[in-house]
Design brief:
Helix content is 55%, strand content 3%. The chain is an all-alpha fold. It has a two-stranded antiparallel sheet with strand order 1-2. The chain starts with 22 loop residues before the first strand and ends in an 8-residue tail after the last helix.
Length: 203
């Protein structure tokens, strides 16, 4: 998948009303778009005949090559980001966290790595750490729409904070209404308005 490709497939939202949420995070490194899904307990139950989703296979050869580069060059940020991305895409988030954290020690301003670290925290049932990491990302770039979009998802699914989620998504719409992120945020807000008329998600 090309670096500029960002996939958004928002199929609903929360408390059983909006489920199966998948968005993409674009990485400048060129890896495939990362996913942010609802936590397992919030996911829609599988219907009869619907198979379990197969876990992506880790590219061991790529991992070994990148680890060799990282070992031989302790200051190589890109190798560490690529290692983290490879583990992330294989849904091995604990290993991804290790390498994102190492990359950020070398390049603290890498907003994409920071945001993917936050997503990885979320996937390992650490929503508070995820939100803290997103705040760090936004301290680097307050207008980073992918961070704001993910912040809204974690606020909604991880913290059951509809007002906070709405605020994050509204910022995305205000900053980039015609972008993929802006359209995804608008769909989220519209869904929330439908589910909670007169309440959260209304402006």
């Amino acid at each position: 998948m090309k670096a500029e490709s960002v996939l958004f497939a928002i199929g609903g939202m929360f408390f059983g009303l909006i489920v199966g949420w998948i968005i993409g995070i674009q990485q400048q490194s060129g890896r495939p778009a990362a996913r942010v899904d609802a936590p397992q307990e919030a996911a829609a139950p599988q219907t009869a005949g619907q198979g379990q989703q197969q876990r992506p296979v880790l590219d061991e050869g790529r991992v070994q090559a990148l680890q060799t580069i990282a070992t031989n060059d302790p200051k190589n940020t890109e190798a560490r980001v690529q290692l983290a991305n490879t583990y992330f895409d294989a849904e091995r988030y604990a290993e991804a966290i290790k390498w994102y954290e190492e990359a950020l020690k070398l390049d603290p301003k890498n907003v994409n790595a920071s945001t993917d670290l936050g997503v990885s925290y979320y996937y390992t049932n650490q929503p508070d750490r995820a939100l803290q990491q997103f705040e760090y990302s936004l301290s680097i770039d307050p207008k980073h729409t992918k961070t704001l979009l993910n912040q809204g998802i974690v606020r909604a699914f991880g913290k059951q904070d509809l007002d906070g989620a709405s605020a994050s998504w509204q910022k995305v719409v205000e900053l980039a209404p015609d972008s993929e992120e802006g359209r995804a945020a608008k769909r989220a807000l519209d869904s929330m308005r439908s589910a909670h008329p007169g309440g959260s998600g209304t402006q």
